[in-house]
Write a structure and sequence with these properties.
CATH superfamily: HIT-like
Number of domains: 1
Strand content: 15-25%
Helix content: 25-40%
Order of helices and strands: HEEEHEEH
CATH topology: HIT family, subunit A
Distance between the termini: 32 Å
Number of helices: 3
Radius of gyration: 15 Å
Shape: globular
Oligomer: single chain
Bound molecules: adenosine monophosphate, zinc ion
Amino acid sequence: MKSSTNATIRNSASGPPQYCVFCKIVDGRLPSYVVYQDESHIAFLDINPFSKGHTLVCPKRHGETMWDMDEAEIGGLFRVAAKVSRAVVTGVHADGFRFIQNNGEAANQVVAHVHVHVIPVMFEDKGRFMGRKSLSNEEMMETAQIIRAALANLV
Ligand code: AMP
Ligand code: ZN
């Protein structure tokens, strides 16, 4: 996957890793509601969620798009995202979930650090436009705790 094409992806959010919002979360310069981490990945609640439990799963190593990752890294990221999705769906009692993974400005990528959105959906959301929600700090803390507990209970 890495450098196997001459095509480029335009991204207005491009910039050096020291200014990257998600790198700041990875190294603790910015607070976040972390639900999972291992040596190479971190998952935290989206600050502006489409639904309660909306989580972002990222590689810790900075890369802007999927094209900056090799196949093993892509596999690892989606393995973690799949595991996190089980905890998210169980934790918030959702009926399904979406993975969204944006690459480039044209795809609405706003943060230029690879991430997979895990968005839990309820039956009542079916076919409906899902707007961004505003959850209180307490609701976010409670949601993160519920997801961490669900992850701990995964077999
Ligand atoms: P994308 O459009 O795929 O680049 O999505 C970036 C996501 O990052 C958006 O859904 C934002 O709400 C989310 N986001 C931006 N800053 C933060 C932050 N500091 N903590 C958590 N989520 C964030
Ligand atoms: Zn970064």
